Amino acid sequence: MKVLSTTWRNLTANVRRSTSVPQFRRFLNIAFSDKFLFCTNITISIGLSSVGDLMEQSYEIFIKEQTHYDLKRCSHMAFSGAAVGVLCHHWYKILDKFLVGKTVDMVIKKLVLDQFIFSPVMIVTLFGSLALFEEHPLENFKDEVKDKFVKLYRAEWMVWPPAQVINFYFLPTKYRVLYDNTISLGYDVYTSQVKHSKPAKTAAKETANMITHAS
């Protein structure tokens, strides 16, 4: 986080020194330049992952599943967003380096690789990064992957193929992560909901304990 804050201070200082173009346009040009793109993509991923979780928590408060906002949970989702942002940043660069062009053939190849290779990696990264904050990281990670992976992967197939056609065909590499995160804001709400629902194994244990205590 210290590196990110230092980078953004340098970026805004560069913007303030510029008087030849409007500052907002200058800010965008610098933020999405090769020098700052990595930090920009991580910042976007952190921000929208946090917003997605807060939207889901708002809904849970509305239906009285919880009584207040859990900022610790939100920070964990932000950390996961950072991990995903790092992967996305490098993944798109790799795809565009080895699959050059915007023909239909190239777009289909990128789409197939994205869905069959990168989507599973992203889901596993989500569960793995969040498991680091839990009491029994390895056990919880295994339970959640077993219980929730298919649900999230199925949802990926509903959202991303049509969205990625636009991404791969029309957008330059530097805007791919921004586009991804904008599209995935609704998906992040669903991701947070799935992640914070109890695995079947855990729910079964709690039910068994309740029955035992009742008897």
From TrEMBL:
The chain crosses the membrane at residues 112-133. Keywords: Membrane, Transmembrane, Transmembrane helix. It is found in: Membrane. One of its GO terms (cellular component) is mitochondrion. Pfam families: Mpv17_PMP22. Belongs to the peroxisomal membrane protein PXMP2/4 family. This is Mpv17-like protein 2. It is a multi-pass membrane protein. Its main location: membrane. The gene is HaOG205199. PANTHER family: MPV17-LIKE PROTEIN 2 (PTHR11266:SF8), PEROXISOMAL MEMBRANE PROTEIN 2, PXMP2 MPV17 (PTHR11266). One of its GO terms (biological process) is mitochondrial ribosome assembly. It comes from the Eukaryota. InterPro entries: Mpv17_PMP22.
